[in-house]
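INTERNAL AUDIT FORM
Audit reference: QA-55
Scope: verify that the stored structure record matches its stored sequence.
Auditor: D.O.
Record contents follow.
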Amino acid sequence: MTGEGRRRVDPWLVLVVLHLVVAAALIAAVVVLSLPLAEALAVAAGILVIGASAARQERRVRRATRDLVSEHVLRGALEQRLEELSSLLDAGRAVNAALEPTEVRRRVLDNAIDLLGAADGSLLLAEERGVLRAACVRGSDRALDAVVQVGVGIAGQVAATREPILAEGGL
């Protein structure tokens, strides 16, 4: 069991042990000290009420913890989405600013590399039917004059299927 789970179990264990100790003490008080049974039962009932209240509080704490974890995960996803949208906005601004095509390509590639956390990348454009040519490259001199057939290699496969591929490691 994880540390967090163990911490959540401990209050229940303490509650059960406490009830057993109080029950044993009450039995001893009735037998040894001649405490009236009605008083012992009243004390036991009070302890049970307090225990039930503690159990309700424990359930509330568990629910609140679960909700906080869910909110934390959701916040992380929203921050990631905001970063993605910010990159897309920057790329859109570059296009709308009527920059030179090479500058627009560079900004689009830079945003894609930053967004994916990549070390380098290239932007290939369809030059003629079935052929892609590198229009902008960052970090890989081998890709400077690359010509790729649609359907061949990672870039060619992406162009053919129009579905992204996340490739990790050096290519």
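Auditor finding: record pair retrieved intact. DSSP finds four helices and three strands in the chain.
Action required: none
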